[in-house]
Write a structure and sequence with these properties.
Layout lengths: L3 H14 L4 E10 L3 H7 L5 E6 L5 E10 L2 H11 L6 E2 L1
Length: about 90
């Protein structure tokens, strides 16, 4: 979501597929040592699901977070983007 065009396209797609407000499922994979950093960035989470990788080096997370717009979704992804090694799904 680096360019203005891709941001606008992301907003359009989110608005087509969701009726706001909604509890949105954010999915991330992070190195295990970055787990606390990721969780600290998303205190508004209502429900958290965790799944470790088979070797335990990574953790998969699904954060269920109430959001009111596509802009809020994109802001949360932007907040998490700063974590080294994070993968957003």
């Amino acid at each position: 979501m680096g360019s203005m065009q891709s941001t606008e396209e992301s907003k359009r797609l989110l608005n087509e597929h969701h009726k706001w407000p909604v509890v949105f499922a954010f999915k991330f994979i992070v190195p295990s040592e970055k787990s606390a950093e990721l969780k600290a960035l998303l205190p508004e989470c209502l429900k958290l699901e965790t799944r470790p990788s088979s070797a335990g080096k990574y953790l998969g997370y699904t954060f269920h977070i109430p959001v009111g717009s596509a802009d809020e979704v994109l802001a949360i992804y932007a907040r998490v983007r700063g974590i080294e090694g994070v993968i957003a799904l």
